[in-house]
Amino acid sequence: MSSNWPIVTVDDIKADEKGSIAIGPFGSRMKSDCYVDKGIPVIRGTNITGGPTFKGDFVYITKEKADSLGSSNVYKNDLVFPHRGSIGEVGIILEDKRYVLSSSLMKLTCDMNKVNPVFLYYFFKSRIGRHELLKNASQVGTPGIGQPLTSLKGIEFRLPPLDKQNEIGDILSSLDKKIQSNTQTNQTLEQIAQAIFKSWFVDFDPVKAKIEALAAGGSADDAELAAMGVISAKTLDELHGLKASNSEAFNKLAQTAALFPAAMQDSELGEIPEGWSYCTFGDISACFDSKRVPLSKRKREEKQPGTIPYYGATSVMDYVNEWIFDDTYLLLGEDGSVVKDDGTPFVQYIWGKSWVNNHAHVLQGNNGVSTEHLMVFIKGTNIASYVTGAVQLKLNQKNMNSIPFLKASTEINLVFQGVLNGLYDAYKNNIESSQSLSSLRDSLLPRLLSGEMELKDKE
């Protein structure tokens, strides 16, 4: 039981080596002019995003620069904490890789004979561990921890025997690994959707394949086979094999290929497939902004506790117990965080009950274009020229609705919708699976750390 587990401090379980508890370099030692295109990645607060793995964009410094920063280097099994900015978060290096701390972070290298770093990571993810990280925090100006290294060293926690730590770490990390696997699968699903969209509606690969086949003296049947090959990523021999082994799939592919024209035509925005035409974003989207209701923090607190996500421009901001939307929607940042560095917009894909404030446009597909089609299109579109405001950026409805959209035939859009339905049904299932796994992990976490849930001794 936990009552038999000794209470120790972080200082008790740090590695004996010098710099096992250390802070990132002073800003003067690692300015932005130190950054290079490739090298040793620098962990910043923005890379610690709630899970055990680091995410987002990294900056890099040379190996020589990293060597000069001594204890600011971090390696496998080191724990990383922000002491300024996003305080209360924790990350752990699970791969055999070298990083360097930014000036706003601190690290802990553990004595592996005393503590399993994965167990300790989950302690700091718990409500008690997070409280310990935050109890010496100042919220004046940029949030920060006073005397960060002293504060970290003095944090107390109950330390189970090492074999119990290993079991607890294994149980919790197995759930996080499943969540991470779902996340990676969803990234692949989105990449597939974007690749098909680009091939069909940007590069016009099926159309060009037909044109090239005919230009080379091929027959109409040759042109259709060429388009089928592009659509399915199969060689001619593989297509013949498909026809012999699965005539239904072959015929379905042939029907899809037949929908694409075999010629191009001029338009005001360049050459496009024959029979296609440009319209506007407003023509193929339905906007529900009039139903949005912003809630102040006090108003949200009046609607709590709750499990209904309250969305802002880029993410879930809170949870409430009422909803104003209950369907699948595309959210597009309207003001504040509107456009990324590459000019593409901040996009959220949501379904089920939700509440959205007035910082995100609420949209669905319309006039033969599905919501998912609309999303795949806008995610890859540079909208920088449609955004106004020097300080407070804004994508107003008028400008958003004027973004040009190339519309194919209704039949092609229906086929593409069917493809996207399969991909995004799997995407939704993975998200919902991860939410269930997260809830299970979060319910197990305090019970395992407190000893309330006893683990059976291994025989």
From TrEMBL:
Which CDD domains does the annotation name?
A: RMtype1_S_Aco12261I-TRD2-CR2 (cd17262)
**What sections of the protein cross the membrane?**
none
Database matches in Gene3D superfamilies? DNA methylase specificity domains (3.90.220.20)
One GO MF term, please?
A: type I site-specific deoxyribonuclease activity
Looking at its record, which EC class is this enzyme? hydrolase
Q: Which UniProt keywords apply?
A: DNA-binding, Hydrolase, Restriction system
Q: Which family does it belong to?
A: Belongs to the type-I restriction system S methylase family.
Name listed for the protein in its UniProt record = Type I restriction enzyme, S subunit
